[in-house]
User: Fold these one by one.
Assistant:
Number 1:
Amino acid sequence: LAKGRGRARYEVFDDDLRYRIHQRLDTELALRDAVAQGEIETWYQPIVDLQENRVVATEALARWRRPERGLISPAEFIAIAEEVGLIKGIGATVLSQACHAATALERNVAVSVNVSARQFVQDDFGAVVKRALRESGLAPDQLWLELTESAVLEAIDSAARTFQELRAIGVRLAIDDFGTGYSSFTHLREFTVDLLKIDLSFIRDLERSEHDRAIVEGILRLADSLNLDVVAEGIETTNQRDLLQAMGCRYGQGYLFSKPTPSASPAVVFAT
Ligand code: C2E
Ligand code: MG
Ligand code: MG
Ligand code: MG
């Protein structure tokens, strides 16, 4: 009896695994044509100045309009694109769309583009960025690049020069999801950046968690002494915004102000 049950369980597992492998291959195959078919879209979510209630930038967020499946979120395809070597093309597409869209913004509003490690460890990453700027006519100081801590770690050796080159022409560098990676503080010493984006996991429970408030305050103090600007991600409530404002956090982003939308200049709600 035990043996029979074991086999049945094994078959269920087997079917499930087979299904998932099939799904994965199917996604990979479809993703290979996505750029050429024009299926990669860029959506935008504003970053606001919490002290002055104005939009300072808008973050470009990739979306895949997959035929017969609808709009696919980056969580479902960016990691796959990185693994199978498609992130270069997708990343360059988003960068180009974002730079073009940003030329319609006011001169003091930037566009912030997510860049994965696989993208910028390539030799020509600097050239890709400069081409996107040249072809769109966007001013370099209207472009921010967001890198995660783990990506920065990979880049310290191979991409440090590229980043210095980009910073020299005015592009600003941000560390995304700050606080979730390893040894966050070492990176700041070895790698010059302009902005920290505090991961939304520290903002979610800000009202209830003294612990999270202490971490955010620590990050703000550190950023202040290193002369870095800070963006708090994932602000959903006026309470969270008020707390961050009171702590002296300059910038914020989240559903409270606007969800990502297809327009680079969405309506922003500065609720009171
Ligand atoms: P991220 O760069 O940290 O972007 C923030 C994510 O949080 C976005 O999800 C955004 O829609 C979501 N978000 C914004 N405000 C709130 C809020 O108030 N509450 C909650 N719960 N979530 C909020 P999205 O668009 O699904 O993107 C997920 C991740 O995919 C991004 O995280 C980024 O790491 C990656 N990604 C997106 N576009 C690109 C891209 O063009 N290139 C690369 N390499 N990665 C990308
Ligand atoms: Mg980001
Ligand atoms: Mg983030
Ligand atoms: Mg994130």
Number 2:
Amino acid sequence: MKNIRNFCVIAHIDHGKSTLSDRLLEYTKTISEREMQNQALDNMDLERERGITIKSHAIQMYYDRGSDGQKYTFNLIDTPGHVDFSYEVSRSIAACEGALLLVDASQGIQAQTISNLYLAIEHDLEIIPILNKVDMDSAMIDEVSDQIIDLIGCEKEDIILASGKTGRGVPDIMEAIVERIPAPEGDVDAPLQALIFDSVFNPYRGVIAYFRILNGTLNKGDLVRFVNTGKEYEADEVGVLRMSQHPQPKLQAGNVGYIITGIKESKEIKVGDTITTVDRPCENAIQGFEDVKPMVFAGIFPLDNDDFEDLRDSLEKLQLNDASLVFEPETSAALGFGFRCGFLGMLHLEIVQERLFREFNMDVITTVPNVSYNLSTKKGEISTIRTPSELPDHNYIEYVEEPYITAQIITKPDYIGTIMTLCMDKRGTLTKQHYLTPDRVELSFDLPLAEIVFDFYDRLKSISRGYASFDYQPIEYRETDLVKLDIKLNGEPVDALSALVHRSKAEAFGRQICKKLKELLPRQQFVIAIQAAVGAKVIARETISALRKDVTAKCYGGDISRKRKLLEKQKEGKRRMRQFGKVEVPQKAFLDVLKLD
Ligand code: GTP
């Protein structure tokens, strides 16, 4: 055990985690140059394309240290950077003793640098500060070094200068991992206690869970129990993760590995759960297990109603790889049969939608997302509202409650004013203002969750030039004045565009949507009236003037094949349209309408 090191890499998004991890894999010859593709760990297409890490990944490498003739086993856990996935970061961190803290030398300390660092410090991880991308002309080595010293209170000599591009600093990082990160502790003879920090679904083998053993030994063939779910299974295969799975007869305390039990449903395995043996169970589960709760709900409908069953099938498969996705059937007057889905945040929603398209060839329409509300009616009935259609008429409502969160924002004092203005505009109240250092201030706000799911994070980033770290936890439900905002096209309500909003925000929101729709809807052969209404009262309106559209008019002469091509093209365009009364709405409009500036 003394030669094992378990660590993760934490950084703000795009500071170069995946690229540097690739260099470590190369240096330890875990991956040959031939196998080397950029960002080997980001193996989903979507991850590669967007250049972001969505799922955590674990990988084992061996380091042959020349100086003391010892061999070391390194378990590297790659973590995602975006706040929507911070649940995965915290689980990964719990499986490690140390963390490489990467800071981009051209960007300096940023939002997620700080919140991930705090998570790591909370778990008592040894931090190795690394100034990355020092090859860049715009690298500000002295300035950013000072920021790091200021933030974690280390010495200048502790900071390793590195570049994932040129490989500079990689040998120093290897040595620092051995020297500075403590070897894991734990008792190999104690009852088994292993923490699940991630899981993936394999169509042939079922669910594969990744774990870190804190105490005890896990043998192939052991009968194991998942403490929180209470399920029992046989360990068909256990092993370590290199570029692929390497089965082992047993794994001991301190190590990181995978287990395959033949489980076919992702629900059966929960990240954060403890694995123990049925024979000799451990007394306590590992602390900190919590169910992931969806924060944002939206309807997802197939473009073509005949694809409903296919959509169900695709969502079920996707759920196996993404346990945080939940869904149930829903019907819409405008869109037919579909599903009400729950997501961790807006980025999660976007990713699910894109994965449906890429991996399952499912073209879908998403409705305006909302949070869930508690409703109490005049008759004393209590229920949960997850869709605009569930909100009854005002006369029936005793009260409605909405979820609140407490947000911590860490920023420079220069930005306090603009951040306060933003949070007030989002119906927030300041609860704490605390200077961490003369140059860094922590602000706490109570905010309605509904106000932060849309564009809060982006706006915060832009008004603070990226220099604000943001984190939040749900606190409680509080009474609110909720209304249903309807959008009508030539008098026909489009239920997929209805939204639940606070009364004080209804008019502004309605105006924005109408204006945006005016930009997004193609002109048609008749006038289109776009209206936003609360109950019978119209609160915003836009008009699109008529157009006589004849795509073939431009084709003079009798070039019939060209004419046909054009008509076919137009038909293809229609396929991506939805009809409301006489008005056609392109699928893209449903998505883009939410991107309010
Ligand atoms: P997330 O997974 O989204 O959090 O990103 P990441 O931190 O893994 O960053 P990634 O490795 O994907 O790198 C982001 C961008 O920076 C890519 O365009 C890389 O090519 C570039 N990059 C990474 N490391 C270096 C470096 O050392 N020098 C230079 N010049 N560019 C780098």
